[in-house]
Specification:
Length: 131
């Protein structure tokens, strides 16, 4: 697992975090370090879907396409697991993860239409509701 702790000179715009995560009723205690190998965006934004590798139990940000405009396909042997609560730098990928609450899918960093039904099934305690 790769997590770089030096964030000198980088900043995050967290202005939409509270618009995306409407309610946080329960989160993973202590958050989790994310395996970001191969993940190219500099920021993992609030509302980003987190997946879990079934063989290792590692949590990872859902991959995005080469243009960084949409989610890529769910990799084999992975499941949808959580949603990021607050934006974090990819190179300092220690994130709060939502277990139960409300997410505004229209404000999420990437369109969710193609995966939303499967995400809702995998995360039944999270209410995905547009404002």
């Amino acid at each position: 697992m790769y997590v770089e702790l030096d964030n000198e000179g980088d900043s995050i715009d967290t202005g939409y975090d509270s618009v995306v995560i409407v309610d946080n009723f329960q989160s993973v205690r202590g958050g989790r370090s994310l395996d970001v190998a191969g993940f190219t965006p500099k920021v993992i934004q609030a509302g980003h879907v987190i997946i879990k590798e079934t063989a290792t139990g590692n949590f990872k940000p859902m991959p995005v396409n080469a243009e960084e405009t949409a989610y890529a396909a769910l990799p084999a042997n992975h499941t949808y697991a959580h949603v990021v609560i607050a934006s974090v730098l990819t190179k300092k990928a220690m994130a709060g993860l939502l277990v139960r609450g409300t997410v505004n899918p229209a404000a999420c960093p990437y369109p969710m239409a193609g995966i939303l039904a499967d995400v809702k099934t995998a995360m039944p305690l999270i209410d995905f509701r547009e404002d």
